[in-house]
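Attaching the record inline, Q. Sequence:
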Amino acid sequence: MQAINNSSLDINTKVKRGEIVFKVLMHILMIIIALILVFPYFYMVMKSLMTQEEVISSTFKLFPSVPQFSNYTQILQDSGYLAAFGHTMLVIVFNLIAVPLSATFVAFGFARCKFIGKNIIFAFMLSTLMLPSVVTQVPLYVLYSKIGWLNTLYPLTIPNITGGGAIYIFLARSFLQSIPKDIDDAAKIDGAGSLRRYFFIGLPLCKPILIYIMINVFTSNWGDYYGPLVWRLDDSFPATLAYKVFYLLQNGATGNDMVHIRMAAGVIMSLVPAVLFFIFQKQLIEGVAMDGLKG
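Structure, as predicted:
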């Protein structure tokens, strides 16, 4: 009997040792992965604090001899920086209102309203997710050219009234379908119409998905330089911040020209999304997890 107890203790001890070794190895692996992911950003910050000579030097140097915080003030002294910031905020504020409202509005129709061809229309809408953006880029460019939208901010704002993309509508619909229909039935008995049920029942209950959509809308518009690059025709275009930082800040800087300034600009552009994520980290993760479970 004692031999059996000793053998079982030995087995338990080996199992616990194995679990400890596994946890230690997993933590080491995660630390290594984290360092690999953080290093490029750390490298960019360090380069943004160097002089031009240090940045382009053939000798590898990770830390600046003397931190050059004047690199950041040089960006702020640029004549078009504040104007570009204003254009960016105009686009962001418009889309922060338009995209969540329109996406949840359309999603409410698919989730709660009955009409002929609802599933077919929804399937057709989802099929647009499989279309690469480059496929629709040329037709949109021709269309916007015909209606006079090129060289304006209209292509970055007005089209988003339709929901901002099928993925947002899909996420909102999945969440709305998880809400018990008894709430809608009770509202119908009280005489509430579809619009009233959307604004007073559906919309308030979609808070997790709304936060998720708004964070994604903000980050995508904050760092979007490709859109302005496509719709711009000449210097009269109201440049956004990302476009200004990466293309216009140094008026065509190429190669090793003003690398430290462009690194500083990259740091500035990345700070806002990083702060936004840390503030709304809990809501963002809850929104995705909740939709994944209920969708």
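Residues 121 and 169 are 12 Å apart (CA to CA). The chain has two domains: 2-70, 79-294.

More tomorrow.
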